[in-house]
Amino acid sequence: MEAHGSYRGRDWTPERLVFHQNLETFADQVGLIVGLQANGKMSQDEAYAKIKKIWKSLKFTRDSLFDPSKD
């Protein structure tokens, strides 16, 4: 379930590869959360809170990988 697609961007860097993998993981997790909520296993509020938490984690990863002050 953790299989990642390959990154095919022309501007390939190790940082972009890591972010690409994290983005795919985020999308997989959101899909699972939505499925649980749609099937009544999780409330909308709980689903929203979980998605918000993993979004913040993804954003932190992006900000740490692509910190503009590094340039």
Query: What level of helicity do the residues show?
Result: 55-70%
Output the number of helix runs. 2
Number of strands: 0
Question: Mean pLDDT, rounded to whole units?
Answer: 88
The CA-CA distance between the termini, in Å, is: 36 Å
- Tell me the Rg in angstroms: 15 Å
Compressed to H and E, one letter per element, the order equals HH
The main sheet comes to: none
**Which stretches are low in confidence, meaning pLDDT under 50 for 5 or more residues running?**
none
Shape: elongated
- Class of secondary structure makeup: mainly alpha
Strand content: under 5%
Oligomeric form: single chain
Structure explained in plain terms:
By secondary structure, this protein is mainly α. The chain is built from two helices and no strands. Helix 1 packs antiparallel against helix 2. The longest helix has 25 residues.
Concise summary:
This protein is mainly alpha-helical and 71 residues long. It contains two helices and no strands.
Structural topology:
Blueprint: H1 14-38, H2 44-65
Helix pairs in contact: 1-2
Keywords:
2 helices, elongated
